[in-house]
Design goal:
Strand order of the largest sheet: 14-15-16-13-12-18-19
Structural class: alpha/beta
Low-confidence stretches: none
Number of helices: 16
Radius of gyration: 23 Å
Shape: globular
Distance between the termini: 76 Å
CATH class of the largest domain: Alpha Beta
Number of strands: 22
Strand content: 15-25%
Bound molecules: nicotinamide-adenine-dinucleotide
Largest sheet: 7 strands, mixed
Helix content: 25-40%
Number of domains: 2
CATH topology of the largest domain: Aldehyde Dehydrogenase, Chain A, domain 1
CATH superfamily of the largest domain: Aldehyde Dehydrogenase, Chain A, domain 1
Length: about 475
């Protein structure tokens, strides 16, 4: 069967790539080949940069409310195509259709938040810093920015960035994950109809060659990266050599701590969606469950009971709670971690391997999995599994929990479940993670807040979303005036 090689979107036009190398894109629920991604060449990437550069001066001079009107149109069109966008996302990424809808709700919220740029981009001024002399800051757009996106949120992640970037007057290039190009293709098909000036928003598919070209070109000014920490760190170093701006959101190992005074009935559903939502392929997914003191036995039983009831299947079927892993490679990686857990002496309480999903023998499925008797030294307790696995560690008190959390290099998110305000306050004060949940399992900041992250989960200073995004995409120019 021949399938389409997806096209790049450059200067307001769909352009066939001439790249010899392509990557196969599979529907992870069925194993069916659904598209091919071109590994775009340096020349093609340079064309996109040239288009974005050429569009910059005019776009920058376009009144801010006109720019925002474009964002509003895109927002409305995404709303009108909500179901189709969500289905495309599930088809290529695998997550349950309700999770895809949730992702598109967030995508639209990012656009809604970016329509506030007329206020968010306002500078400030002070009169009479000396007699008759005024000083002001103007927040100016800088030029051509780009993002490098991961496979797990193919619809939403680019909108953490480009709506803010173009809203304040920059031009932009999206580099989707080669594993899941179709959601971005669908979005750009919609955007193509809406009259956004040519060159303002472009898309180049591919891998290292395209990314390196974007980094090295003298005509780009900054990068937003979301993906694994080793790749992120590599690219952060590289772009630093060129003196450009970068915000790099990396991987994670998120610890969820349950205190003896937690409300178990309400805690368990939050834990389950945290570990099993999106089949565990979230940078905010639960990574380790720390059961403190006497809660350990009842918690283990309640989590096991709930996990057994979690439904697994083709994400396009309504009611399915958990879809497949997004790729065969991702599935094999998780299976490798389950093997490692067994080898290192953990006890497999619930085994999701070999789960039977009727009608889909070729899909990349792993069911809910739980490991008990885990220690902080085991690889399943230290590394990002990116799959539906709950490693449980029994700790004696909060201090021991925090010690384990701080020994881990990542610092994306962490949650505590407790009825005590004092414990909650201590947790938010002490724990080194960028997003803290108090009786919340998935700490996903809404579009007006920075998408935080610390330690090896983030390299840079200004984060994605909200005011941070506007500051990242603008340069402060100070003007001091005196009129004679
Ligand atoms: P990845 O690092 O493999 O790929 C991310 C992007 O980098 C892709 O677009 C890919 O084409 C590109 N890339 C990969 N290797 C490259 C290289 N050598 N040179 C240049 N570009 C390269 O990540 P992934 O597997 O797509 O995504 C999963 C990871 O993303 C997980 O670690 C997850 O925690 C993380 N993530 C983090 C956040 C966050 O906000 N912190 C959000 C989502 C995902």
């Amino acid at each position: 069967m021949t399938v389409e090689v997806v096209k790049n979107y450059i200067n307001g036009k769909w352009v066939e790539s001439k790249a010899k190398e392509t990557r196969d894109v599979f529907n992870p629920a069925t194993g069916e080949l659904i598209a091919k991604t071109p590994m775009s060449t340096k020349e093609e990437t340079l064309e996109a940069i040239a288009a974005a550069k050429a569009a910059f001066d005019r776009w920058r001079a376009t009144p801010v409310f006109t720019r925002v009107r474009h964002l509003n149109r895109i927002r409305d069109a995404f709303e009108e195509n909500f179901e189709e966008l969500s289905k495309t996302l599930t088809m290529e990424q695998g997550k349950a259709i309700d999770e895809a809808r949730g992702e598109y709700r967030r995508t639209i919220e990012n656009l809604e938040c970016a329509t506030s740029v007329p206020s968010l981009q306002m500078g400030y001024n002070t009169e009479d810093i000396a007699a008759g002399i005024d000083e002001m800051v103007i927040k100016q757009p800088i030029g051509v920015f780009f993002c490098v996106a991961p496979f797990n949120f193919p619809g939403m992640v680019p909108t953490w960035f480009w709506p803010f970037a173009i809203g304040v007057g920059n031009t932009y290039i999206v580099k989707p994950s080669e594993q899941v190009p179709l959601s971005q293709v669908k979005q750009f098909e919609i955007i193509h109809e809406l009259g956004l000036p040519r060159g303002v928003l472009n898309m180049v598919h591919g891998g290292p060659e395209a990314v390196n070209t974007l980094i090295e070109s003298p005509d780009t000014v900054g990068m937003s990266f979301v993906g694994s920490s080793p790749v992120g760190k590599l690219l952060y170093k590289k772009i630093g050599e060129f003196g450009k701006r970068a915000q790099v959101q990396g991987g994670a190992k998120n610890f969820l701590t349950v205190m003896p005074d937690a409300d178990l009935e309400r805690t368990v559903p939050a834990l389950i969606t945290s570990f099993y939502g999106c089949s565990g392929q979230r940078c905010l997914a639960g990574g380790v469950l720390l059961a403190v003191g006497d809660i350990y036995e009842p918690l283990k039983k309640a989590v096991l009971d709930a996990a057994k009831k979690y439904s697994v299947g083709n994400g396009l079927e309504e009611g399915v709670q958990m879809g497949p892993l997004a790729s065969k490679r991702g599935m094999e990686n998780v299976l490798g971690y389950i093997e490692a857990g067994l080898k290192e002496g953990a006890e497999l309480l619930l085994d999701g391997r070999g789960i039977d999903v009727p009608g889909h023998p070729e899909g990349y499925y792993i069911g809910p999995t739980i490991f008990d008797k885990v220690t902080s030294k085991m690889s399943i307790a230290k590394e990002e599994i990116f799959g539906p696995v709950i490693p449980i560690i029994h700790v004696k008190d909060l201090d021991e929990a925090i010690e384990i959390i701080h020994a881990n290099p990542y610092g994306n998110a962490s949650s505590v479940f407790t009825s005590s305000g004092k414990i909650a306050r201590d947790y938010q004060y002490k724990v080194k993670a960028g997003n803290i949940g108090i009786n919340i399992g998935v700490v996903a900041p809404i579009a007006t807040f920075p998408f935080s992250g610390m330690k090896d989960s983030f390299f840079g200073d200004l984060h994605g979303q909200g005011q941070d995004a506007v500051d990242f995409f603008t340069e402060n120019k100070v003007v001091i005036t005196r009129w004679f």
